[in-house]
Amino acid sequence: MTQVIDLAKKFASFSETWQPKILAEVNGQEVRIAKIDGEFEWHRHDDADEMFLVVSGKLRMRFRDKDAVVLPGQMIVVPRGTEHLPVAEPTAEILMIETAGTRNTGEHESERTAVLERI
Amino acid sequence: MTQVIDLAKKFASFSETWQPKILAEVNGQEVRIAKIDGEFEWHRHDDADEMFLVVSGKLRMRFRDKDAVVLPGQMIVVPRGTEHLPVAEPTAEILMIETAGTRNTGEHESERTAVLERI
Fold it and tell me: In this protein, which residues make up the domain named Cupin type-2 (chains A, B) (predicted)?
């Protein structure tokens, strides 16, 4: 567990979008990274807060009542139960912290529900 | 909770070293940042893993049996119960994830035990 993890190397190791990869586990939370492009889908996580840190690109986090633009070196926490729609404009690389096992599409399964692998 | 947090602005808002600041809470974990310089002290956290992401500078994480050098864009997880000594060479800015309330000096109190504030 005490290996150094290089984010740039991890991002360089895959190309698919909206397929989060697990880098590490910390106190039952997973540290995940993902490449994203365009719009995801509205969803919420009833039992898990979700933190997004933008590494490159631009993330627009849409909520039902506002948008938040998150740029590299910026982060946002989406509280549990809050509907949100992540949109990359046009692409972004993000690091996420969320409870282990949290489904990327939240309360519903869809064609965008990902099977997460550890890299 | 859905405010955008800018790491550079947060780092610019304080100057003291080895005084972690809490930026956000995610599922009972605290997202903390700290400026560090030189050597801290050996300690361990019996009940909490600790993740370190280096934002700038150079962190040498010493363990009893090895060292790990962590550079900007790299991270390391120190598992609970593992003795470690963080050393900045000569300074670093780091982001940490650890269980809310975790004492920075781990199992013992010392003059370096910090009272954490939220910024």
Answer: 37-96
CB contact under 8 A, B79 and A1: yes
A4 and B77 in contact by Cβ < 8 A? no
Q: What are the CB-based long-range contacts (under 8 Å, 24+) for B32-35?
A: B32/B95, B32/B96, B32/B97, B32/B98, B32/B116, B33/B7, B33/B93, B33/B94, B33/B95, B33/B96, B34/B93, B34/B94, B34/B96, B35/B11, B35/B91, B35/B92, B35/B93
- The secondary structure element, H or E, covering residue B38 is strand B29-39
Contact A2 B78 (CB under 8 A): yes
When pLDDT is cut at 50, 70 and 90, the band that residue A2 belongs to is confident
Evaluate whether residue A58 is within a structural domain: yes
Question: How many domains does one find in chain A?
Answer: 1
Measured between beta carbons, the chain A residues lying within 8 angstroms of B5 are 74-77
In the predicted model, what is the mean pLDDT of chain B? 96
Q: How many CB pairs under 8 A join A and B?
A: 117
- What CATH number is associated with residue A27? 2.60.120.10
Assembly ipTM: 0.95
Inside any domain, residue B1 = no
- pTM equals 0.96
Which residues of chain B are within 8 Å of residue A74 when distances are taken between CB atoms? 4-7
Judge: A25–B77 Cβ closer than 8 Å, yes or no: yes
